[in-house]
Write a structure and sequence with these properties.
0% strand; mainly alpha
């Protein structure tokens, strides 16, 4: 059975979303590598790559946002307050 072209290709939104998710995953990998880098030069290299990926991620986000493909929901005040309190408790425990 022959697949139709639409069955095998991504639309613009899906393609950009896939790129955005890939950049997010790369950021996670580079962050881990940066934390685990054993020399200053290695850490500097990973930091440079992390910054580059962060710029790419932001560029993709702005493209998606301007096209109406990505509209993050604003955080509710209660969620912000709860997260703040959790952070403050953890910070006190570490002091």
């Amino acid at each position: 059975m022959k697949n139709a072209k639409s069955d095998t290709s991504l639309n613009e939104k899906d393609a950009i979303l896939d790129m955005l998710e890939s950049e997010k995953q790369l950021m996670s990998f580079y962050t881990t590598a940066l934390f685990e880098g054993s020399t200053k030069s290695v850490r500097k290299e990973f930091s440079s790559h992390l910054n580059s990926v962060a710029e790419n991620q932001y560029s993709l986000y702005t493209q998606m946002s301007s096209r109406g493909y990505y509209t993050p929901a604003p955080a509710q005040k209660q969620m912000i307050d709860t997260t703040n309190e959790t952070f403050k408790k953890q910070q006190k425990q570490l002091s």
